[in-house]
Design a protein that fits this description.
This protein has 357 residues and is mostly helical. Among the domains are: 89 residues, no CATH class; 131 residues. It is 45% helix and 6% strand. The chain has a four-stranded antiparallel sheet with strand order 1-2-3-4, covered by helices on one side. The longest helix is centred in the first third of the chain and has 17 residues. This is SWIM-type domain-containing protein.
C-alpha cells in the first residue's frame, strides 16, 4: 500500500494542497468503488471528473483523470482521490493488494506488446521501419501493394524520381536554437522558485482575462490568482472585484465565458482562509445586484455561493437605502407637490369667435 509521502511526491506542493482541500470538502469526492486493486470515484471541481487509482506492488499508485490538466501526470483531483483511499483504508481496514498479472495467450501477449511499442514510437520512426521492411521482404511488398490496390506493372513503368546530390560545403556553423517562450505557468513557477511571489499579481493583471480562445487555459488564471493571493491577499481580491465589476457593467461582455471565469477565480480565492468570508460577501452582492442574469445566478449557486441575508449577520455597516427624490420616508409614498398659485382667469367664451370688421 502506498503512503501519503509517496502520494505527495507525485505533484508540486501547491497541487497537493489544492487536492487536500478537495479531499477535506465533504461534497468534492463522491462515493468510491473498488474492483480489485483499482479505486474509482467522481471528483467535483470546476466540473465533475472521473478519477481512477490503481495500487502497485511497490511505490506510488497509478492515477488517471479525464480533466484537461496537462502540467504533469497527476492532477489535484487524483490527489484528492488518493487521500480519500488512504482514509478509507485507515477507517475500514481494507487491504488492497495489487491484482496478479492476467494470463494471456500468445496472440494476446503479442498484441499487448505491439500496443505498448506502437504508442511509444513516433510516426517518422514507424514509416522508416516500414520502408526498410518492404525493401527487404518482396512478399511483404506484394501484400502492401495488394492491400492498397496498386498496379505493380504500372508502377514499374513510372520514371524514377531524380536523386539530388548536395554540393559539398564547409561545415555549417551551429546556431543556437531559439529559446521557446515560457508559458504563464512556467513564468509563475520561476517567480516562486526565485522567491519573487509579489511579482505574480502584475503578471496576472497584464493578461487578457476574457481572451477566447485563451492564450492560457481556463485553469491557469485561477491558479495564478490563488498563488498571488498567498502573498498579496487584499490586493489580489481588490483587483479581481474591480476587473469583474467592470466586465459586468459592459452588457456586451455578459456571456457564459465571463460567468465561468468569474466563478473559477472566486473559488480559487475562497480556498485561502483569509479571503473566504470576503469572497462570499462579494459573490452575495453580485447575486443581489444582477438578479435578472439567470446564468450568472446559476453558476454562482452551483459553486456554493449564496445570498447572505440579513446584512446584520455579516457584521458590516448597513448600506443606506436609495430612494427616489420626492418620496415620503415615513409612508413610503411620493409626496404631493403643492399646486402653484396662479391668478384667476376669466371664463372662456363658448361659440365661434367674432370677426373684426
Amino acid at each position: 500500500m502506498f503512503t501519503k509521502k509517496e502520494l505527495a511526491a507525485l505533484v508540486p506542493r501547491t497541487i497537493f494542497e489544492r487536492g487536500r482541500a478537495y479531499y477535506e470538502d465533504d461534497e468534492a469526492v463522491g462515493s468510491i468503488r473498488q474492483q480489485g486493486d483499482v479505486f474509482t470515484a467522481k471528483v467535483r471541481g470546476t466540473a465533475t471528473y472521473r478519477v481512477s487509482l490503481q495500487i502497485r506492488a511497490t511505490g506510488p499508485p497509478e492515477i488517471q483523470c479525464n480533466c484537461p490538466y496537462d502540467y504533469g501526470p497527476v492532477c489535484k483531483h487524483g490527489i484528492a482521490l488518493g487521500l480519500a483511499v488512504l482514509g478509507l483504508v485507515a477507517d475500514a481496514g481494507i487491504i488492497a493488494q495489487p491484482a496478479p498479472p492476467e494470463k494471456r495467450s500468445k496472440a494476446e501477449k503479442s498484441a499487448h506488446i505491439l500496443k505498448g511499442a506502437w504508442a511509444r514510437t513516433s510516426d517518422k520512426q514507424k514509416l522508416a521501419f516500414l520502408r526498410q521492411l518492404l525493401a527487404q521482404k518482396p512478399k511483404q511488398l506484394r501484400r502492401f501493394l495488394a492491400a492498397f490496390e496498386f498496379d505493380e506493372k504500372a508502377l514499374a513503368k513510372l520514371p524514377a524520381q531524380p536523386h539530388y546530390v548536395a554540393r559539398p560545403t564547409t561545415a555549417p556553423t551551429q546556431r543556437p536554437a531559439p529559446r521557446r517562450p515560457l508559458s504563464l505557468a512556467e513564468q509563475a513557477q520561476q517567480l516562486l522558485e526565485q522567491q519573487r511571489g509579489p511579482e505574480l499579481l502584475p503578471l496576472v493583471l497584464a493578461l487578457n482575462w476574457l481572451q477566447n480562445p485563451p492564450a492560457h487555459d481556463s485553469y491557469t488564471l485561477p491558479y495564478l490568482l490563488g498563488e498571488a493571493a498567498r502573498f498579496q491577499p487584499e490586493a489580489t481580491l481588490d483587483a479581481v472585484m474591480e476587473r469583474f465589476e467592470g466586465f459586468l457593467e459592459d452588457k456586451s461582455l455578459r456571456n457564459y465565458l465571463l460567468y465561468s471565469r468569474l466563478v473559477a477565480c472566486l473559488k480559487a480565492l475562497a480556498l485561502l482562509p483569509a479571503l473566504t468570508q470576503q469572497v462570499q460577501l462579494f459573490a452575495s452582492e453580485l447575486m443581489q445586484q444582477y438578479r435578472p442574469l439567470r446564468t450568472l445566478q446559476t453558476s454562482l449557486g452551483r459553486a456554493g455561493f449564496v445570498i447572505i441575508a440579513p446584512e446584520e449577520a455579516t457584521g458590516l455597516p448597513l448600506k443606506p437605502l436609495k430612494r427616489p427624490p420626492g418620496s415620503d420616508v415615513k409612508a413610503g409614498l411620493p409626496k404631493r407637490r403643492p399646486k402653484p398659485e396662479t391668478a384667476a382667469l376669466p371664463p372662456k367664451r363658448r361659440g365661434r369667435p367674432r370677426k373684426d370688421a
